[in-house]
User: What shape does this take?
Amino acid sequence: MNRFLVSAGLALALAACGGGDSGGSPPATGGGGTPTPTPSPTPTPTYSLFSALTGDQQFRSACAGTTEQAGQISLFSDVGFIRSSTFPLAIDHDFLSATSSWRIASRSPDGFDYTYTFTPADIISTTQPNTVAYRQVASDGFGNRFAITQPTLGTTPAEYVRTTRVFTRPASILTNAFCVIGVPTLLTDRPSTPISYTQFFYNGTAFITDRTTAVRRQFDISTSTAELTANPTTGAVSVTVTIIGREFLSDGSLSPTSTALGTYTGQSVIDGTQQTFAAPFSRVPDGSVGGGFSGWFFGPQGREAGLAFGFRIIDGNNDIVLGGALTARR
Assistant: This one.
């Protein structure tokens, strides 16, 4: 199994030992017994900011998105846990410090293992803020792409989490994946009271296909809203996303009109032994299930969080397929 390492910046701070005597004789005590030593304080976990990480990194990720083959869109639910070498469950994100490159690897839905290494020579211009984008042309002429973004949560750039997009066609299937990576919260650093996240950043795409005419439309979902809470006492992690889309027009611009694409909710229960959380999504109010979410907490006591989600819902005559990721700060 491919073992993922916690980044170098995630070491626990050593407790100060301090002390030493003054060299004088201790005062006499009536009993003459040995005094009980004062317990050492519990070390306080320290975290490196994402921007301060150094050396090679193997990031823990959660990913979801869509796939396309012969003009057909389908759910790509590559979400969840650290991938193993035999059955990848999320896309590898490895930073190679010697060459300032990103190694992206996984298995495509059609069973094809792939690895791409994006170097500084592959960087292209982009209009997306706080983003570094890469493009690498394969032997068949297809431009495989990778982008990493420092999301703005509220008015502050994220400190411990990043969102990425992996757009590849390793074989016959086009994969459009959205991921979160970062500096995970340690299991020993759980908050003592329930927490709620109030600032969000979305990245993802939705497709609506008319099942009668086969006309398909694509939507950006960056203006969607969310609710995310975590209760360390019960282990419940509750997620609700309300998807709001803006259609891509023929010239590549976004329609000014917002389209409601439904509200979806799910609850994961974690027991304190795992850093990830995951659960199915159900649509409000009918309860139909068509996919799920998976994610991580990042930074001290889960200051930030990130999750990926993907699902497919039949809504009347519309076939809705959606994949995306969101990051959050409390």
The longest strand covers residues 254-269. The CA atoms of residues 58 and 282 lie 32 Å apart.
